[in-house]
Design a protein that fits this description.
By secondary structure, the protein is mainly alpha-helical. It is about 50% helix and about 10% strand. Helix 1 packs across helix 3. The structure holds FE2/S2 (inorganic) cluster (FES).
Length: about 60
């Protein structure tokens, strides 16, 4: 699925950038070798960042 249509950047590529420590849309764009155009994808990238951070958090022991 494309996250950034302007630059044809797919979700796998964005996820890889996030997993490599890129924690804001500007950094993700740079990691993907693109620059934002319309900016419509920034919110989706932010959501992916928070979602992947939440998924990576350890579950508290009971
Ligand atoms: S959709 Fe990403 S810059 Fe336009």
């Amino acid at each position: 699925m494309y996250v950034c249509i302007c630059n044809a950047v797919c979700s796998d590529r964005v996820a890889e950038a996030i997993d490599n420590g890129h924690n804001d849309p500007e950094s993700v764009y740079a990691a993907c070798g693109v620059r934002p155009n319309c900016g419509m994808c920034a919110e989706t990238i932010e959501e992916m960042i928070w979602s992947r951070k939440a998924a990576a958090m350890p579950v508290p022991a009971e």
